[in-house]
Amino acid sequence: MRFGLVVVVVAVGALIVGGLVAQGRPVGLDWGILWTNRFLLLQGAATTIALAALAAVFGTLIGLLVALARVANVPFLAKYAQGYTEVFRGSPLLLQLFWIWFGLPLIGVPINGFAAAVLGLSLNAGAFCAEIFRGGILAVPRGQSEAALATGMTYLQTMRYVVLPQIARSSLPPLIGQQISLVKDTSLASLISFQELMLMSQSIIDRTHRIFELYIGAAAVYFVICYPLSQVVRTVEKRMGRQT
Amino acid sequence: MAEPMIEIKDLHKHFGKLAVLRGVSLSVTAGEVVVIIGASGSGKTTLLRCINHLEVPDTGEVRVGGTRLTDRAANIRAVRVECGMVFQQFNLYPHLTVLDNVTLGPRVVRKVPRRTAEGLARELLTKVGLSDKIASYPGQLSGGQQQRAAIARALAMQPKVMLFDEVTSALDPELVGEVLNVMRDLAREGMTMVVVTHEMEFAREVGDRVLVMDDGQIIEQGSPATIFTKPSEPRTRQFLRKILDKV
Amino acid sequence: MMLARRAAPGLGAGWTLFRSIVWVALSFLGGTALLLLAVRQIVIQTGIATSGGRGWTPHFEVVLQNLPFLLERLLSTLQLAGSVSVLAFGLGILVALARLSRVGLIHLVATWYVEVLRNTPALVQLFLIYFGPPTVGIRLSVPVAALLGLTINNSAYMAEIIRAGIRSISRGQTEAAATVGMTYPQIMRYVILPQALRVVYPPMVSQWISIVLFSSLASVIAYPELAEHAKRLDSRTFRSFEIYGAVTVMYTICTLTLALVLRLIERRAFPVAR
């Protein structure tokens, strides 16, 4: 990997130099444009991170509740939770965002861009987290919950003291993976006019017509956020593999 | 006559098309040790699990300590608190130490403060011979030790009735004795016990009453002496012949 | 209260399972619709409603009238997804093998290919491919750009799935085959890949379904698939709630059916060895 880093730095350096040298010529890449607009881009990046973090928290909470609902023996609740999971995992995030952003105000529910983005991303992430948690819960041998219930514990107590502590570790890699996807999904919020990194880049493009530079710059920001997280997942998975 | 500790009236249960319990009635008085034997599939485990609502009968009535088992959660929990259950697969909580395993129930269900619960737990674990394993995790214990810990865990709730579901079937033969000894002591102390088992020696020595089940019904019941030496039912004789041949 | 019994999956229960899942999804939507109506009532009552709120009543005729078009577009979505799946799979195999290569440069390039594509949003990649080249004089048509963008993006994910599958086949098999004198390509073809295919199938199914869902991104560059038609209908009639709701349902039923069909194929193609 270190060798790769060197290669990339050299390549990027070459691009920058090439860009600076080729200024004015039609095929030139003006990387300086990223520097000029750095504040706007940082703003966009910050908004993206904030959006992703918020949706991650809500999504995880929703996922946990939905997973608990699905595994419980209350028929209507379990079916409703299942339906929620099927619908939000089985349809495009784009349409979910559109439904919320365009649809809700029409039926009288006022919602701004930020709230719509958070809501849409959280509901979507929640469905995926629910599947992750549900898988973890089902992996815990049934006998243990029976033993807990036989002692007189309620369903929630059984979950809290016996089942959930055991899935905490095994659920971590897929959960982090889900959050990585969430960061990338925030780019869709640009399509409902929410000012995150993508939309910010696009407004700069509208002004400067520097398409390659800005989209690559935006991609680099996403990469810088997501890549370390994916390495964390790999490390956690390796460590868990060693423990079993 | 004292009210029976457990009263079961005419239980019926189906699993899909299969009839698992076909009209089972039973009465257990306080302090009695009832041993249920029978071939696999005879319904004895299902019967046991109906007592604390781990299985729900289609029809029939179950009463424990005077309380009738209904479908309401509070009622089910009230009954379960009075029944301690020990499982064939031990079902200890792997992420907790033995001590925490035993104290979890009392702390969470009976709201016993931690200190008190731990004191009681230590007593019980000493009683079952695990005083040196208090801080160990279930994964570090042998099968026999795990099962004894499971018994201590069930006793920690101070139940009126102890239910044993083939608790030695998953154990290596040399570990069976230590568990049966604990159960023997419990019986001697006057605990009401319902034991589903294949251990005939135990049934003979410790049981007050032996129930023979076959095909979802109690085909015969009586004192161990009667059942084992002069069974009246042909099916009982068949079953005993098969079992005792192996013993 | 007890934990619900897990239903045992039955082989012939495919249709019942499908029916029950569709039923569940629809009842979820019904329940949510009631919930939203309740919310709407509250919002209207307390006076914080938006202007359009009060006068709104559901008007699903837009959806019903346009149903044939929508279904046609659904097919076009599936076509796009299908093409992407096949191409990305092929490309994915190449990249996976490159990732497993012992030649440093090939391994490096492949690794960076995968990491960059997996850690950046598909939307950015699509925009780069569609809007980028015109600045240097190359104009890609919408279908080509959509196909290219989606294929390249998904090839990275597929490469990882395939690589994991290949690595999961124990080294011993490679050694055994090598000792008989098989060459690396032969070992791959006859020993490793057939087994890897079975391991790879379930995560591949998720990826295929993900492709169907992400094909909706093509609507952003005006590719004529289902999401794009939904947007067009919405801008014409403003019946956003009904349109996007209905199209969401269509996608859901589509992916559920797909998942079921692919799972049945799995049972046939890779029977569980006893």
Write the layout of secondary structure elements.
The complex is a heterotrimer of chains A (244), B (247) and C (274).
Chain A: H1 2-21, H2 32-36, H3 38-71, H4 75-90, H5 93-106, H6 113-139, H7 142-150, H8 155-185, H9 197-208, H10 211-243
Chain B: E1 6-15, E2 18-28, E3 33-38, H1 44-51, E4 59-64, E5 67-68, H2 73-82, E6 83-86, H3 98-109, H4 114-127, H5 143-155, E7 161-165, H6 173-188, E8 192-196, H7 200-206, E9 209-214, E10 217-222, H8 224-229, H9 234-246
Parallel strand pairs in B: 3-8, 3-9, 6-7, 7-8
Antiparallel strand pairs in B: 1-2, 1-4, 4-5, 9-10
Chain C: H1 14-45, H2 61-65, H3 67-100, H4 104-118, H5 122-131, H6 142-168, H7 171-179, H8 184-214, H9 226-237, H10 240-269
Helix pairs in contact in C: 1-10, 3-4, 3-6, 3-9, 4-6, 5-6, 6-8, 7-8, 8-10, 9-10
Describe this structure in words.
The complex is a heterotrimer of chains A (244), B (247) and C (274). Chain A is an all-alpha fold. Chain A has one domain: Orthogonal Bundle (MetI-like fold). Chain A has helices at 2-21, 32-36, 38-71, 75-90, 93-106, 113-139, 142-150, 155-185, 197-208, 211-243. The radius of gyration of chain A is 22 Å and the shape is flat. Chain A starts with a helix and ends with a helix. The relative contact order of chain A is 0.13. Chain B contains 9 helices and 10 strands. Chain B has helices at 44-51, 73-82, 98-109, 114-127, 143-155, 173-188, 200-206, 224-229, 234-246; strands at residues 6-15, 18-28, 33-38, 59-64, 67-68, 83-86, 161-165, 192-196, 209-214, 217-222. In chain B, helix 4 packs across helix 5 and helix 5 packs parallel to helix 6 (173-188). By secondary structure, chain C is mainly alpha-helical. Chain C has 2 domains: 1-56, no CATH class; 68-269, Orthogonal Bundle (MetI-like fold). Chain C is built from 10 helices and no strands. The model of chain C is unreliable at 1-11 (pLDDT under 50). Classes of the chains: A mainly alpha (244), B alpha/beta (247), C mainly alpha (274). Chains in contact: A-B, A-C, B-C.
Distance between the termini of chain B: 39 Å
Tell how many strands the DSSP assignment of chain A holds.
0
Q: Find the structural class of chain B using helix and strand composition.
A: alpha/beta
Structural class of chain A: mainly alpha
Biggest sheet overview of chain A: none
* Average predicted local confidence, pLDDT of chain A: 87
Proportion of β residues of chain B?
Answer: 15-25%
CATH architecture of chain A: Orthogonal Bundle
Estimate percent helicity of chain B: 40-55%
**Could you say what the CATH topology of chain A is called?**
MetI-like fold
Mean pLDDT of chain B: 91
Radius of gyration of chain A: 22 Å
Oligomer: heterotrimer
Strand order of the biggest β-sheet of chain B: 6-7-8-3-9-10
Helix content of chain A: over 70%
Question: What sort of overall outline of chain B do the alpha carbons produce when their principal axes are compared?
Answer: globular
Number of structural units classed as domains of chain A = 1
* Strand-residue proportion of chain A: under 5%
